[in-house]
Design a protein that fits this description.
With 461 residues, the protein is of the alpha/beta class. 31% of the residues lie in helices and 23% in strands. It is globular, with a radius of gyration of 21 Å.
Length: 461
């Protein structure tokens, strides 16, 4: 039995900040003690550093097929980059193809991930085709630890579900304990606006943001909330980007409804100014929901402070600028939707602490503890406490870095945050007690990460 002691650091969780030594045995945390009491076979000196739980990124898309191409990060490259950024668990999305079973989609994603991941992983299930058979399959998936199901009010002809299909899936999740995750945009109306914009010759990337209107995100968010209320089901709205959508969530929560919201770093740090960059550079920032004008950022930060938004995930779905984003030259609607970000989230949120947007404990809450609770992984993941997996990050709060495609580890040819200076950097990362990053060197391996079944949402209790 190997014993590792992390000594001298400031341990930060969602609830506490304490100077303590952390003892790890057989991949689990076994004790937090006053500094200097314990000894171990192996010691990590965290003096002057933070000791924080590994990040839980509950929204990634490795190898996702989209728009005639695939997300450029594999489970191997994507989970390695996540580790570099201090994330030790991802929950990725298995995709049901229309006309096929949920099981076939889940099996396909297991095959992509198994033996390739540097860190632990779980799956949500994208439900593209609601029918009596898939509704029955939802029950079976919940029993085996796939406890959340994503539906789309956008992308007609691909992932889209109508209100009746959404209601049926919500009714099923109300019975089986699953959590419906919703991409809330009125895709039918958006398609009309896309067609009209292209007919006017408005083909540049910035029009992607203009046609996917904030009001159509807010309308869909409102509709999803009311459908969930009718079904008696909880609802988790993914990648909230618009202040009007935040207002819908806040209103529902004020009514006491079990409604939750996630936002992403791109909505907190980027804006339509990026989409409008000249020479097709704006294509790098095409994602859905889209980037919004800067004034939306303050409302998103406020939502994170008031807990009307509970989680920051990345929606990591990278496409290279060369050869992939370029598919949409001359037609913004053909630009693959998605941004790279799995490596940047923890650092950007630490910068938000320094900028005064959130506290240190809230940083850990929205990036580690709440995603773990929301998706049935807590307290195995998301905290530093006896019995938890030893997913631990030694974080240097004083190191400065410049974000760049030159230095990141994501398999994509640009950074959404190119040239951004931030303070704070991951130094060492343990996944179940095993060093994956050791003093800024990658010491992990593909296949260390294991599939992790999840219980139902613990945030409702």
């Amino acid at each position: 039995m190997t014993r590792t002691l992390i000594r001298g650091g400031l341990v930060i969780t969602a609830s506490d900040e304490i100077h303590a030594d952390v003892l790890i045995e057989d991949g689990r945390i076994t004790a937090l003690t006053a500094p200097g009491i314990l000894t171990a076979d192996h010691t990590i000196d965290a003096t002057g550093k933070y000791v924080i739980p590994g990040g839980v990124d509950a929204h990634t898309h490795m190898e996702l097929p989209f728009g005639g191409t695939f997300a450029s990060d594999t489970f191997e490259t994507g989970t390695r980059a996540a580790a570099w950024g201090g994330t030790t668990t991802i929950v990725d999305f298995a995709v049901q193809t229309v006309g096929q079973t949920l099981r076939a989609g889940l099996d396909a994603w297991h095959a992509k991930a198994e033996g390739n991941c540097a860190i632990d992983y779980g799956f949500h299930m994208i439900v593209s085709d609601v029918n009596q058979e898939t509704l029955k399959e939802m029950d079976l998936l919940v029993e085996e630890g796939v406890t959340s199901f994503k539906q789309f009010m956008a992308y007609p002809g691909v992932f889209y579900s109508d209100d009746g299909q959404i209601l049926r899936a919500m009714q099923r999740s109300a019975e089986n304990g699953g959590l419906i995750m919703m991409h809330a945009e009125n895709g039918i109306a958006i398609d009309v606006l896309v067609e009209q914009a292209l007919a006017r010759g408005e083909t540049d990337p910035r029009y992607h943001g203009e046609v996917r209107k904030a009001l159509l995100e807010a309308e869909a968010t409102h509709r999803a909330i009311r459908l969930a209320q009718v079904a008696g089901a909880p609802l988790y709205v993914v990648h909230v980007s618009a202040m009007e959508a935040v207002a819908e969530l806040a209103r529902a929560r004020d009514e006491g409804l079990p409604v939750f919201g996630e936002t992403c770093p791109q909505y907190l740090f980027l804006s339509t100014d990026n989409l409008a960059e000249p020479d097709f550079e704006g294509a790098k920032y095409v994602c859905s929901t889209p980037l919004r004008p800067k004034e939306h950022q303050a409302k998103l930060w406020q939502g994170l402070r008031t807990n009307d938004l509970q989680v920051v995930s990345t929606d990591h779905c990278p496409f290279c600028f060369t050869g992939q984003k370029e598919l949409g030259r001359g037609d913004f609607s053909k630009i693959p939707n998605g941004l790279p970000g799995v490596e940047n989230r923890m650092d950007l949120l630490h910068q938000a602490v320094l900028d005064g947007h959130i506290s240190r404990r809230r940083w850990i809450e929205i990036a580690c503890a709440t995603p773990a609770r929301m998706f049935g992984l807590y307290p195995k993941k998301g905290t530093i406490a006896p019995g938890a997996d030893a997913d631990v990050v030694i974080y240097d709060p004083h190191a400065e870095q410049v974000m760049s495609a030159e230095t990141h580890h994501m398999n994509v040819d640009y950074s959404a945050y190119e040239g951004k200076r931030v303070t704070g950097r991951v130094e060492t990362v343990l996944s179940r007690g095993v060093p994956v990053i050791t003093e800024r060197e990658y010491t992990g391996r593909a296949g260390h990460g294991v599939y992790t079944p999840r219980s139902t949402c613990q945030y409702l209790n």
